Amino acid sequence: MATVLLLALLALAGCTPKLPIDEGTLVIALPGSPTSIDPRLATDAYGEQILQMTHAFLIKRDAAGNPLADLAETWEERSPTEILFRLRKGARFHDGREVTSSDVRYTFEWILDPRNRSPHRATYDKILKIEAPDPHTVLFYLKEPFAPFLVGMARGIVPAGSGARGYTPVPGAGPYKVDDFQPDEAITLSRFGAYYDHSPSIAKVIVKFIPDSNVRFLELKKGSVNFVLNGVDPDLLPAALKNQNLVMEEAPGSNVSYLGFNLRDRILSDVRVRRAIALAIDREAIVRAIWKGHADLADSILPPGFRANSEELSPLRHDPAEANRLLDLAGYRDPDGDGPKPRFTLTYKTSQNELRRRIAAVLQEQLRQVGIAVEVQSHEWGTFFSDIRKGNFQLYSLTWVGIADPDIFHYAFHSSQVPPEGANRGRYANPELDRLVEEGRRELSRSKRKEIYRKVQLLLFRDLPVFPLWVHRNLLLRDRQLAGFTLAPDEDYTSVKEMRIDRQVRGATGKAAP
Amino acid sequence: MRTYLLSRLAQLFPVVFGVVTIVFLLLHLIPGDPVEIMLGESAVAAQKEELRRELKLDRPVAAQYVEFLGGLATGDLGVSFRSREPVLREILSRFPATLLLAAASLLVAVLIAVPLGILSAMRQHSLLDHLSAFLAMLGLSMPNFWLGPLLILIFSIRLGLFPVAGFGTSRHLVLPALTMGTGMAAILMRMLRSSLLEEIRQEYVRVAAAKGLSRRATVLRHALKNSAIPVLTVLGLQFGALLSGSIITETIFSWPGIGRLMVQAIDARDYPLVQGCVLFIALCTVAVNLATDLLYSRLDPRIRYG
Question: What domains lie within chain B, and their CATH numbers?
Answer without folding.
Answer: 14-73 (no CATH), 90-299 (1.10.3720.10)
